[in-house]
DNA sequence: GACAAATGGGGTAATTGGGGCG
DNA sequence: GTTGTCCCAATTACCCCATTTG
């Protein structure tokens, strides 16, 4: 089953969290999020992992994106009734 | 329709409500407003939810400071004078 | 070969979180 | 009961430029 293993660029993840791309890089460097390194040294993040961290309280869908390479428009991903996330300091 | 799920920083919400960022943090801690935590522990708020709480248009009967100065000659003053605030006490 | 844009690394200032107090 | 301000430490944002990506 494809859970959405598409890889996101730091800019994409930064836009999802409303943070700076450098901050996403810092998360990967701190081990808070898995990262795949390109041969050149750049990082790519798995969409499934990013969305797992993005769970706050409510469904959310894609923000504006001119290039949506996913013709599959099946919002079957829902039912997220989990309580508040367990963000620990 | 456009829900406007942009994320706002505590400083943004504080500026919208004219309060201290710490107050916004307490609202999130008290569960009065949904919050998304970044892996670093900082909070992000949904603009749609903030605007829903920021409703000032429509009905506005909130003008008394709690001291009734004319108990008589008053119209059918119902006991409920609170706005649409769902905050329990 | 070239280009524009994004990313990474290092540094700094600004914001944020938590606790306690007025 | 709430909100504002103090302390602190942590996280985040913006500056530079070299490299990688497309």
Automatic annotation (TrEMBL), chains A, B:
> Which Gene Ontology molecular-function terms are recorded?
DNA binding
Return the Polar residues bias intervals. Answer: 69-83
Which InterPro entries does the UniProt record give?
A: BldC-like (IPR048048), DNA-bd_dom_put_sf (IPR009061), HTH_17 (IPR041657), SinI_DNA-bd (IPR010093)
Which top-rank group of organisms is this from?
A: Bacteria
Chain ranges of the Helix-turn-helix domain: 7-56
The segment annotated Disordered runs over 57-89
Task: Give the protein's recorded name.
Answer: DNA binding domain-containing protein, excisionase family
- Species the sequence originates in: Asanoa hainanensis
């Amino acid at each position: 089953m494809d859970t959405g293993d598409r890889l996101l660029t730091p800019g994409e993840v930064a836009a999802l969290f409303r943070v700076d791309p450098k901050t996403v890089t810092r998360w990967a460097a701190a081990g808070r999020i898995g990262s795949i390194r390109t041969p050149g040294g750049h990082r790519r993040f798995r969409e499934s992992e990013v969305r797992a961290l993005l769970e706050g309280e409510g469904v959310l869908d894609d923000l504006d994106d001119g290039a949506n390479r996913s013709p599959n428009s099946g919002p079957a991903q829902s039912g997220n009734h989990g309580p508040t996330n367990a963000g620990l300091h």
